[in-house]
Amino acid sequence: MRLWFNNYIILSFSIAITSFSTVAQLYESQGQATIENGNIESARQHAMENALKKALLVAGASVSSVQQVVNGLITQDEISIRASGSVNAIELIDEVHSNDIITVTIRADIFPQEKQCFSADFRKTLLMTRSKLLHREQANIGSIYDLDKSSIGLLSSKFKANSRYIDAKLFNKSVNQFTRFNQSMNFEAIKQLSVSLADRTDSHYILYSEIIDVSFNNEATNNWQFWQSDIYNRNFAIALYIYNGTSGELTFEKQYRNTALWTFNKRTAVDVNSDNFWQSDYGTMINNTLNALARDIDENIMCEPTQAKIVRVSGNKITFNLGKRHGVKVGDEFTLLHKSNFTSDVGISYAGLEVSSYKVKVTSTSMQSAVAISSDSGLLGNIQINDLAVRY
Question: Does residue 135 share a domain with residue 248?
């Protein structure tokens, strides 16, 4: 199935590119969407938009939303696109339906741009910390006190099964101090916590989340069915925060809110790890919310700079904490950066990086690390452990 479309230029869509190659390249990308109310066509459209956005980002486009890249409807034989003037055609090469999720694989014919999203070549390690149920009294009905733990566990499994850009690690045994620091607006403590967790777990990004609402709506949905117990809608709202493990700075923040029928008896304790819960209306709604959350994280982390920490320096050779597991290959080139963090007079810490004159090329890889040598075989001067190797 090959989909052709007209090509338009949006003047307000900004890309830092001045010239294009005359030879187009094929980019293969996957996208996902939730099938809602049985509407497969709509889900397919959103999945293809998701996949096209990823392909454009890897090819070098800088986008802030799908609407800036794609503005049209998919029909059986064509797709109308508004893009930056570099996409020729899209081919739908695979489509899989599983548990109300549609996954498509597309092949896009794109003119490559000078500036590419090189960091999309590598998977970033994302440490997923235990979520926090903020208002535990709201969990009394159904005794769903472990919803925070089960939700983040399910989100982790989604990344492990589907993400091409994130290597997820789950730290779900204990609650950290993020919520306490966040509520007291102690952002410096959050920075220190994030850097500490990243150091201890060899991670690039840290994810914190808070379940902020599992309350019931006040009005029953079945008042006319007087012979039945009242059935109420129950809310689910979750806030997530992603911090850079090197600088401790906030990278991504968003809240998600939805509602669904609570079909269980109010006096019954519900096992939030059971199929019975996750196949219910309320469990399905949470699952769909987590799908949207996972897609947003994947897209926002994809083109963030991949910052590998240097863990060993020896002459003209370094070892850093990216390896085969993250997509690093022999021959990949990296630029070296010096960390130069500083603290202001009022006690606020800021991340600082100084670009060195050194470039290195990878000569060998293991699953978790890689060894690289300087391009000119010269000594690496003042490069130190905990400096960074990056590819933008």
Answer: yes
